[in-house]
C-alpha cells in the first residue's frame, strides 16, 4: 500500500503513517495503523472511501474508539477517524449531527435547547456514529428511541438515507453491522421539555455513572452484553473474578463489568482476560457471555503463548480457588 500515493491524491487531508492507535483508544492500547486519516466533511469521507475501494485498500472506520479494543499488531490499510467531522445543528425539535460528534456533546446541546429524550446519553463517551452502529444505551434509554434517519455511505461510495425502521435496531445492534455501511449523519427527533427537569435528570445519571464506574482509569467501557436474566457484573463478582489482574489489565474493583488499564496494559492483556472471564462464567454458571466491546486488528507477532503461560499471568487470589468452584444449580 502506497501512503505517498494516498497523500498525493488527498493533499489537504490529515494523514499519519504508521501511527500508534494507542494514542486514540480509550484503553490506551493498540498497534499502528498503516495510514490514519482525519476527514472533516461527508464529501471528503465519500471521496476517500471510494478511492480506497478502487485501490483495494482495506478500510476501517473509527469514532471515539471508546467501546473498542485494537489488537497489538494494529490495523492494515487505511483507518479513518471521524472525530473531526463533528458539526451539530439544532432546528426546532430535531438535531442534525455529523457522526464524529461526541454523543455527550449532543446530549448537552439538547439540554441547552430545552429538548428532552437524550438525557440517558449524557455520560456515554462514544461518538454518534459508534452509538448508531451499536444502538448504544444506558439507564433505560437507547439511541434508537430518538433517531429519525441516518445518512449512510456504502463501501463503493454511494450515499443514501435509512429510516429508523430500516436501521433494524435491537439490543446493541443495528443494520450497519450487517451491511458494513458507514454512518455519516444522524437526525435525532426530540420533544420540548422543561430545562430544569432535563438538567436534574442528567445530574442524577452523571452521579450514578461517576459513583459506580471506574472513570479514573483507561477502559473500554462495558465489556460484555447483559445476558438475559442475569447481571454481568454480579456473575463476575460471584465467580471471584473482581480484582483479577492479567498483565497490566484488571477487572475493576469498582464495577466488575469493566476492565481497566492499571499498569501499561496491552490489548493482548485485555483480550486474554476477557476470554478467561468467559470461560470461567460458562463453566460455573452455564452462561455464555458475549462481548459488547468490539475487538479489531491483528495480533502482534510476539503474542503466541501456551495456555500455561497465560494462566501464570493471573495474579488474583481466584487462581487458588478456581478448581474448587462448583457450577450453580437451580436450587442455588
Automatic annotation (TrEMBL):
Domain FAD-binding PCMH-type: 29-193
Cofactor: FAD
Localization of this protein: Cytoplasm
The reaction(s) this protein catalyses: UDP-N-acetyl-alpha-D-muramate + NADP(+) = UDP-N-acetyl-3-O-(1-carboxyvinyl)-alpha-D-glucosamine + NADPH + H(+)
Chain segments annotated as coiled-coil in the UniProt record: none
Residues forming the catalytic site: 172, 222 (proton donor), 292
EC number(s) recorded for this UniProt protein: 1.3.1.98
Single annotated GO MF: FAD binding
One GO location term (cellular component): cytosol
Keywords on record: Cell cycle, Cell division, Cell shape, Cell wall biogenesis/degradation, Cytoplasm, FAD, Flavoprotein, NADP, Oxidoreductase, Peptidoglycan synthesis
Pfam families linked to this entry: FAD_binding_4, MurB_C
Enzyme class: oxidoreductase
Function: Cell wall formation.
The protein, known as: UDP-N-acetylenolpyruvoylglucosamine reductase
Taxonomy of the source species: Bacteria, Bacillati, Bacillota, Bacilli, Lactobacillales
Amino acid at each position: 500500500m502506497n501512503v505517498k500515493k494516498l497523500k498525493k491524491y488527498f493533499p489537504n487531508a490529515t494523514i499519519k503513517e504508521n501511527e500508534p492507535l494507542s494514542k486514540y483508544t480509550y484503553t490506551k492500547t493498540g498497534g499502528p495503523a498503516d495510514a490514519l486519516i482525519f476527514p472533516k466533511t461527508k464529501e471528503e469521507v465519500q471521496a476517500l472511501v471510494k478511492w480506497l475501494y478502487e485501490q483495494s485498500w482495506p478500510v476501517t472506520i473509527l469514532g471515539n474508539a471508546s467501546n473498542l479494543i485494537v489488537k497489538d499488531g494494529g490495523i492494515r490499510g487505511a483507518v479513518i477517524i471521524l472525530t473531526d467531522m463533528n458539526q451539530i445543528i439544532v432546528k426546532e425539535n430535531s438535531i442534525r449531527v455529523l457522526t464524529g460528534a461526541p454523543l455527550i456533546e449532543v446530549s448537552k446541546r439538547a439540554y441547552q435547547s430545552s429538548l428532552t429524550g437524550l438525557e440517558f446519553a449524557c455520560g456515554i463517551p462514544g461518538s454518534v456514529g459508534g452509538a448508531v452502529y451499536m444502538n448504544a444505551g444506558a439507564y433505560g434509554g437507547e439511541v434508537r428511541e430518538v433517531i429519525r434517519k441516518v445518512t449512510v455511505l456504502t463501501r463503493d461510495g454511494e450515499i443514501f438515507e435509512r429510516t429508523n425502521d430500516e436501521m433494524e435496531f435491537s439490543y446493541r445492534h443495528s443494520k450497519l453491522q450487517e451491511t458494513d455501511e458507514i454512518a455519516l449523519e444522524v437526525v435525532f427527533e426530540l420533544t420540548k421539555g422543561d430545562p430544569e427537569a432535563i438538567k436534574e435528570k442528567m445530574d442524577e445519571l452523571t452521579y450514578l455513572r461517576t459513583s459506580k464506574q471506574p472513570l479514573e482509569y483507561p477502559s473500554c467501557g462495558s465489556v460484555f452484553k447483559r445476558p438475559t436474566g442475569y447481571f454481568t457484573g454480579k456473575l463476575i463478582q460471584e465467580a471471584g473474578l473482581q480484582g483479577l489482574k492479567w498483565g497490566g489489565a484488571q477487572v475493576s474493583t469498582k464495577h466488575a463489568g469493566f476492565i481497566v488499564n492499571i499498569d501499561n496494559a496491552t490489548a493482548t492483556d485485555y483480550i486474554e482476560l476477557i476470554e478467561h472471564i468467559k470461560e470461567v462464567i460458562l463453566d460455573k454458571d452455564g452462561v455464555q457471555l458475549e462481548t459488547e466491546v468490539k475487538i479489531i486488528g491483528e495480533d502482534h507477532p510476539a503474542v503466541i503463548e501456551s495456555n500455561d503461560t497465560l494462566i501464570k499471568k493471573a495474579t488474583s487470589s481466584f487462581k487458588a480457588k478456581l478448581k474448587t468452584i462448583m457450577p450453580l444449580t437451580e436450587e442455588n
